[in-house]
Amino acid sequence: MSLRRFVVRRALSVVPVLFGVSVITFGLFHLTPGDPVSQLVALNPDVSAAEEARLRERWGLSGPVWRQYLAWLSNVLVGDFGRELRTGRAVSGILWRRLPETIVLGVFGWAFAIAIAIPAGIYAAVNKGRLGDVAARVLALSGVSIPNFWLGLLLILVLSLYLGLFPVLPPSRLPLYHPETLRYLLLPGVTIGTAAAASVTRVMRTSMAEELNEEYVTAARARGLPERTVVFKHVLRNSLVSVVTLAATLTAGIVAGSVVVESVFNWPGLGSEFVRAIDRREVNVVMAITLVTAVAVVLANLLADVLYAVLDPRIRYD
Amino acid sequence: MTDGDDPGTDVTDDDDPGTDSAGSRARSRTDERGRIRITGFDADRVRDRDPLSERGDEAAGGTNGGTAAEMDGRWRRGLRRFGRNRSAMTALAIVVSMATVSLLARPVEVLGVVVQPFALAPYDPTTILYLSVDPSVSPYDPPSWRFPMGVDGSGRDLFSRVLVGGRYSISIGFVVVGLTASFGLAYGAISGYYGGVVDEVMMRIVDVVFAFPGLVLALVVVATLGGGYWQLVVAFSLFGWAGYARLVRGEVLSIAEREYVVAAKAIGARDRAVIRRHVAPNALSPLVVLASLNVGSVVIGVAALGFLGLGMDPSTAEWGTMLDATRETLIQGPGGRIPWWATVYPGGAIFVFVLAMNVIGDGINDALDARTTGVGRDGRGGRKERDGGDRGDRGGDES
């Protein structure tokens, strides 16, 4: 199969998944008792039945479920996620305002993870069994095991409160492009990236160590290539393949992590908005963010698979 | 390989074109050569003969390590290897003692009957000390002999709360993993074994579930169902099985190709028997590894929900909920003393438990995978070991 055909086929397979994602998102909120209108009615008891019916009509909550679903889906497809129940603001506006914040945080987390994990994994694999390897393994295992909210709290505790190196929380936040933002970004970014860094280190170390035992490595050494060339040109490339397969899963982890970490640091992204919306039962906002999250993960998966096929041609012939 | 339409057909290799035309003479000739010869084979008829096909299963499995006895041996070897792994055994001791301590922390009553009378925790975890025990205690008193982990923001004894707190997180972790792993095992085994359209549809469903980060779905479920113990179990079980299903399906796809499965099918064993007796047991060891690693991530997930204020009731002594209560004080800046103990101890308990669980998971992985490497079956031993490890890592990061 040519690469292009593989990509097209893989991209097409996303369509039914996205459809399923929309069904689950919709189903989670509409098959459970208590839709937004009945909540509103519960809040003001003097709403008449006629008004209630009118409200349902306006929010697309009348008629059979499948029709409600279609109405919702056709709105979502053109970027209309409805309105907040209490304020009447458009949900899409909220999304557009919050999304960049989360993306910046996630990208920073990823960059931190890669910057730490790749060198650490290489180092551990090359020095397998020695002190450095053991230290890297212990650290990686701790990184996988530490709850990100606790790590965030500890960082605040030590770096902000005791050492005063970072502001605990910004009194009013600066725009994202401001250079000062980096200082606010550092702690949440490190917090969100730690789990990914630890996982990548573990996988990197295992796959490097395994590749180093392959025959082509012996052959390259026998040809008299310097060890550095062997490790960085031959082995590294092959080991990165397994990191790419991990990348999609880790992206999902970072997306989920943003919900918690943003709440720890009051970072005004999608994650903290999500928690706030759940607290206030803003169904439209919760649905929109759930959907956006899932779509992001599906696309990340697609990207990882395509990247995988580019790096490792064998996969295309499955 | 088989020719089910005609009960009288020999199933032999068809290299020799003379076999069919030469009739019974040729048949006896192949017999003498010791070729495989199956006469009177009829798949439909054999399906009805239950006892015979069951016995056939065993005989077929025996050649390739699928029988009960050999399975036992494999698990026993793994167990011995695990026992020699000192860090894994230490971790196991930690997990067992944490679970025991949390169970013994306060008496347990079931329907008014005291089932467990011990009380290791000095105070009731919900007692506000300055109201009922000692008026001189104030919120956020530092650790002391009387209160080894200090006092929390509402004036409750942190030590007692940390001891009791394990009950919720640990038990939810194991219950959820038990439920999701068994469902995932069945789902994945069915999907991988039948293949074709069934597999396609079932795996698309898994893809869909996988698109949602587990924590996000759990949040949504808890938001609709409300907080509480069983609500948390549901929240994490409802969509947590997808990882196991995908893993088992992959294993099953490779197992289904093995000789002992082909042989069992050729003998006419029913699908259910083949799945239950050959396919599922052999797919079990990577599942056990993933399950052990997932206990930790469920525990973190439960604590995360508690931390976001959506898990148990806010006054419950649950590790994550306890952290939520201290966050505000921490964030708003210290009014004088920094109450580090209220953050360090509950979170530390989660961390130690999850770390120990992950060490156990790694230990199980080493113990069970080494067998594959050692035997080198199908020439895929080493490859498989690494796959198992990678999946484990992925499993650990879902929340």
Automatic annotation (TrEMBL), chain A:
Residues 99-304 form the ABC transmembrane type-1 domain. The chain crosses the membrane at residues 12-31, 103-126, 138-162, 182-200, 240-265, 285-311. GO terms for cellular component: plasma membrane. The keyword ATP-binding does not apply. The keyword Transport applies. Its main location: membrane. It is found in: Cell membrane. It is a multi-pass membrane protein. InterPro entries: BPD_transp_1_N (IPR045621), MetI-like (IPR000515), MetI-like_sf (IPR035906). PROSITE patterns: ABC_TM1. SUPFAM superfamilies: MetI-like. Keywords: Cell membrane, Membrane, Transmembrane, Transmembrane helix, Transport. Belongs to the binding-protein-dependent transport system permease family. This is ABC transporter permease. It comes from Halorubrum glutamatedens.
TrEMBL record, chain B:
One of its GO terms (cellular component) is plasma membrane. It comes from the Archaea. It is found in: Cell membrane. Residues 166-361 form the ABC transmembrane type-1 domain. Residues 1-18 have a biased composition (Acidic residues). Keywords: Cell membrane, Membrane, Transmembrane, Transmembrane helix, Transport. Residues 42-58, 377-399 have a biased composition (Basic and acidic residues). It is a multi-pass membrane protein. Its main location: membrane. InterPro entries: BP-dependent_transpt_permease, MetI-like, MetI-like_sf. The keyword Transmembrane applies. Belongs to the binding-protein-dependent transport system permease family. PANTHER family: D,D-DIPEPTIDE TRANSPORT SYSTEM PERMEASE PROTEIN DDPC-RELATED, OLIGOPEPTIDE TRANSPORT SYSTEM PERMEASE PROTEIN APPC. This is ABC transporter permease subunit. It comes from Halorubrum glutamatedens.
